[in-house]
């Protein structure tokens, strides 16, 4: 694919379908460059993603996200992001951060989650590099270790802690504003991509969280149609 087109893979979860569509709309609305979306939907991955669901995984795409390099034919760059996000800035700014010195790039969060339970009663698991993998720029040719077989058999920590790379030096750093954790971090007006990691505003208990009003406004625009 032409590097002038931002190739964006988004985790899709049947429990929060609206999240994917609002995130895509927010990216489209702010973008100054062409974008190509690929939702990662388990029912579309028959014969590709075969691993059993782990009781600790809070979303359907917890592990399937690591198929992005495979699905990109190990060519060019791709962005992965969780669906429970909202873009507030031009995705071209994130796309420009691609650096061929690295195999993957992400926000290197250093925090301990404030809560024990998140949306729909899911346990908030705590581990090193928590949320690093919720937004990744993949330099696909340098991620050939992420074969279909590896993604189906590796442990959760091997995947989410980037153990598939030879060295942590292969992980580039992205500014925190490109994966800004709602509620975990204080409100910041210049956050470019906010992440409702505890639960999106579409769940009743999170509808008054920071940036929720912006999310609902974007949902309304996503549903817009001009009538006769």
Descriptive overview:
The longest helix is centred in the N-terminal third of the chain and has 14 residues, at 17-30. The chain is globular. It has a six-stranded mixed sheet with strand order 2-1-3-8-5-9. It has a three-stranded mixed sheet with strand order 4-11-10. It has helices spanning 17-30, 68-71, 91-95, 148-153, 156-160, 212-222, and strands at 6-11, 35-40, 77-81, 85-87, 104-106, 117-118, 122-123, 135-139, 171-173, 180-181, 193-195. Helix 1 (17-30) crosses helix 6. The protein contains six helices and eleven strands. It has one domain (6-223): Spore Coat Polysaccharide Biosynthesis Protein SpsA, Chain A, CATH 3.90.550.10. Helices cover 20% and strands 18% of the residues. The mean pLDDT is 92. By secondary structure, it is α/β, with parallel strands linked by helices.
Summarize the structure.
With 228 residues, the protein is an alpha/beta fold. The protein has helices at residues 17-30, 68-71, 91-95, 148-153, 156-160, 212-222, and strands spanning 6-11, 35-40, 77-81, 85-87, 104-106, 117-118, 122-123, 135-139, 171-173, 180-181, 193-195.
What is CATH's topology name? Spore Coat Polysaccharide Biosynthesis Protein SpsA, Chain A
The CATH homologous superfamily name equals Spore Coat Polysaccharide Biosynthesis Protein SpsA, Chain A
What is the distance, rounded to the nearest whole angstrom, between the alpha carbons of the first and last residues? Answer: 38 Å
Q: How would a crystallographer describe the biggest sheet?
A: 6 strands, mixed
What would the average pLDDT be, to the nearest integer? 92
Q: CATH first level: which class?
A: Alpha Beta
Q: Low-confidence parts, pLDDT < 50 over ≥5 residues?
A: none
Structural class: alpha/beta
Give the helix level as a range of percent: 10-25%
Count of distinct structural domains: 1
- Number of helical segments? 6
Do you know the CATH architecture?
Alpha-Beta Complex
Total DSSP E strands: 11
Gyration radius, rounded: 17 Å
Strand content: 15-25%
Q: Which term fits the overall shape?
A: globular
Keywords: Transferase
GO molecular function, one term: transferase activity
Protein name: Lipopolysaccharide biosynthesis glycosyltransferase
